[in-house]
Design a protein that fits this description.
This protein is 81% helix and 0% strand. With 319 residues, the chain is an all-alpha fold. The chain starts with 5 loop residues before the first helix and ends with a helix.
Length: 319
Amino acid sequence: MTKTGLGDTSINIVVAAAYATLVVIWATSPLMIVWSNDSLPPLFSGAVRLTVSLILGLGISALLKQRVEFNRPAVQSYFAASLGSFGAMLLTYHGAQFVPSGLMSVLFGVTPILTMVMGLYILQEPLPRPLGRAGIAVALCGLVALFAGKEDNGHFQLHGIASLLGASVLFSLSAVLLKKIDAGVAPFPTTIGALIVSTPAFWVLIYLTDSFVSPSLWSIKSQLGILHLSIFGSLVGWFAYYFILAKTSITAVSLVTLIVPMFAVWIGIVFNDETLSHSQSLASITILAGLAMFIAAKKRTKKSEEVEIDEVLKSDPAS
């Protein structure tokens, strides 16, 4: 029989706290990205964010005496993580110019489905239950409706939606590869390692595109956005994400992506006067409904597996 003690309870409390932290950070990050782009090119605001995060992260790492390892598995995990901190972020900042922050969060909600599809091939995970497959179909219908919607600035919005969907693909691939590599690197060093890889790449692109902007031209919104994203989005948020990923399954992390859009849409409406068209609202609801079906199917599968394990343990005389 399995036993639970005070140690398990304390771990559960920490994981729950990490979940709550991640929900708050991810719900506010889309708006902060939009704000950071207020007076700055997307590429430059992203680079400044990562630079501040890296400087703070290295300082904290030194205080905590957590070394950033550079053995082969660790470096592989940093490059895998950088698919999210560089590739996905680059596309996110670009797409944020054309899409409301609430809709950004909805599009990132499809990452669990993308992760599952990649997991089938990379991690050899099993196919989802029929309910999960139906959820994928419903979410895909929502995405098709989102692309088919006719808006006043439809061409630009479609461009932004495509960029954000590409970011979701890279973010999902990053999570799956981290699970596959399984380097055993602690969450905070993983965050720092990803920043070490991503930050120089951003500045190289800035040099090549001549995207530098003098600090005297930064608006208050841009400064607040970068400050929030540097401390919470890149450091605290990524640490919480990698911590949850290390302690639970990818499916468990996906629950956050279902909760976040509900808050993000409200935050965008209240603090940035954003609106979603009728077609965008219906498409978003369809995507979230499909995601809910998919997660429900995954949870049922997990419960069934736990029941089977318990039955095996009960039938074992040695247990």
